[in-house]
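sorry for the late reply, my laptop died twice this morning and i had to redo everyting from scratch. anyway the thing you sent over, i finally got around to it. pasting the sequence first so we're on the same page, its 310 residues, then the predicted structure underneath. double check i copied it right bc i was rushing
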Amino acid sequence: MGQIETTTAPRAWIYQQSSGALNELTFDASEDGASASGISDSGTIAGAELGPPVPGFWTTTGGAMLLTGQYQSFAEAVAANDNGTIVGNYQNSGTIGSLPLVWTAPGYAQSTLPGLPCANCNPTMVTANAVNDAGVIVGSSSYATSNTDGTSATNGTHAVEWLNGTITDLSGLQGGDSAAYAVNSSGDIAGGSRTSQANGAPTHAVLFHAGAITDLGTLAGDLDSTANSINDSGQIVGVSSDAADTQRAFLYQNGQMYDLNSLIDPSSALAGRVSLQEAVSISANGWIAVNGTDSRDPGWTRAFLLIPSP
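ok and here's the structure:
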């Protein structure tokens, strides 16, 4: 599931490994394009109709529905769980920063999520990125603390989680800026954090577990990393990059980070031809969706599916 650029407009798609088919996802034949951002285990695909974006979802059985509410235009659905909860964000330049939205089945009524207390900062810079089946939603929120004279003492963005509409600040490494991008069924959360509050501090992939934050580090020789997805086994995938912003996809498991490029089966037809740059998702059975390039068709980003060897 993802998005493909065409000569006319971006198109949403779903790949079904069982059939090998890549099928386009649309809401309406007259739409300017569409994007697909997240899929649940039960086959609900969150996304948006483009031009301007209107949130909606598809199902793997062929259904599609645009989502309504106070914030409809300039909004996008980004994730869904197996209980019919869909999360997304509203963002319209010049009117509001970013406001997280929730649609709840069966009627898909729209509600909003609060940000962290934010005196002397923009409280609308709040983003939802993922939701698990228990209804835990994760993302990020701007925050600020104030001096006694009302001036801002500390401000930035922190990873957060919401449960039943209540927000919790997950903080960051040494209090640095952070964001949460994925949550598994156990409530473990993956994301990224600046390594300190210092300007220019590198960003590292992190795991939030039971109130503690763990720095997952980077691949050897790199400066920055971000975790994009975590499965129920605790496997984490993401991207690691060096000072020149050369990116490599990684898998983190059992306390170690691996370069996915080094794990490609040497007998694979793709060995030596592809550069796996960013792992975007990992399933319960360890299948990994990755963006990268193919030397036979340079200059274009391609989607790859990595299936573990038996």
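Residues 236-310 form one domain.
thats about all i looked at so far, will dig more tmrw
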